[in-house]
Amino acid sequence: EVQLVESGGGLVQPGGSLRLSCEASGFTFSNSWMHWVRQGPGKELMWVSWISSNGIDTSYADSVKGRFTISRDNARNTVFLQMSSLRAEDTALYYCARATGGAAAGDWGQGTLVTVSS
Amino acid sequence: QSALTQPASVSGSPGQSITISCTGTSSDVGGYNYVSWYQQHPGKAPKLMIYEVTNRPSGVSHRFSGSKSGNTASLTISGLQAEDEADYHCSSHTNSNSWVFGGGTKLTVL
Fold this sequence. Notes:
The complex is a heterodimer of chains A (118) and B (110).
Chain A: E1 3-7, E2 10-12, E3 18-25, E4 34-39, E5 45-51, E6 58-60, E7 68-73, E8 78-83, E9 92-99, E10 105-108, E11 112-116
Parallel strand pairs in A: 2-11
Antiparallel strand pairs in A: 1-3, 3-8, 4-5, 4-9, 5-6, 7-8, 9-10, 9-11
Chain B: E1 9-12, E2 18-23, E3 35-40, E4 47-50, E5 64-69, E6 72-77, E7 86-93, E8 99-101, E9 105-109
């Protein structure tokens, strides 16, 4: 059974940093491209970032470029999202998702909540 | 990258069919056959229902179907059931090698 378990969310002040983790199991992690997607209070999903299976290629949404960094450790079956210079508008539930082909995410975690507030 | 445009809400009675539209541009929906649809029940993670415009993952009901014309993709649910009541989100690959989602549509089964 595929499992994606996010952790690392919490309350952080504007301008602060946070590192999210997503531990994967139930599939060959090192063969899978991974994504972070967030969902704000308005319920709209927003794609944040992806990383290739070997970690060499990455891509970011314009709104987080330069502030967020995605990385992975295939030995630990874990993908990370390092977030810095956080803003109130980054407040959201952050989901880790596995790309399953055709630019689609077939597997999702349950999310970790990030709240940016003073 | 601007979000794809979806209606905020749609509704239908049990047994009826409904269609949810998802409008983008030639840089995303119109340029690639990489449109996906997700179903999300309250408090739950999104679930993939359609990928590559028309394909259903294993286990997804045949009542769900997808299509595309130009810059607009559509999700049709036939034979509406109470359990179909949920939020539906579309997404597309873009020419920036990124993804973009729609604003989401709340489906109410009357």
